[in-house]
Structure to design on (141 residues):
């Protein structure tokens, strides 16, 4: 997958959720452009039924499917929304290693108890329990 290959840290390992949203949006918009072009070409030939059918199938149903994927993506991103990003100074002060995966951090989230984690590690941990992976302090108070 191209998004995974790019290693964009700002996506916080949500590439598998971003990909269907971007693909559905791109195909729906390109279909819309083609339908508009074909409708001008068919304006005097009576091909409106085909244009309406293509609009429904390619554009409306495509955007509806994109909306389903977008809701899942926003729900996953919402888990991390209340945790701010760590500054470069904080990363330097707190040793730049995530205590969940033990990998180096260049982008991290900060919990209210001031622990730093990769966004993806924190999001996965919050799926199982609502406490800090380090000190077990409740994160939803």
């Amino acid at each position: 997958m191209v998004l995974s290959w790019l290693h964009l840290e700002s996506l916080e390992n949500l590439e598998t959720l971003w990909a269907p949203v971007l693909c559905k949006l791109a195909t729906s918009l390109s279909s819309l452009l083609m339908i508009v072009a074909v409708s001008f070409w068919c304006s005097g030939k009576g091909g409106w039924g085909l244009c309406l059918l293509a609009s429904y199938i390619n554009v409306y149903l495509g955007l509806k499917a994109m909306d389903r994927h977008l809701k899942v993506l926003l729900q996953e991103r919402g888990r991390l929304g209340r945790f701010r990003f760590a500054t470069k100074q904080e990363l330097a002060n707190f040793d730049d290693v995530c205590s969940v995966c033990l990998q180096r951090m260049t982008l991290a989230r900060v919990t209210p108890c001031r622990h730093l984690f990769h966004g993806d590690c924190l999001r996965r941990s919050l799926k199982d329990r609502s406490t800090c992976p380090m000190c077990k302090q409740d994160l939803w108070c």
Remarks:
- The longest helix spans residues 48-78.
- The chain has a mean pLDDT of 82.
- The chain has two domains: 13-78, 83-141.
- The chain is about 55% helix and 5% strand.
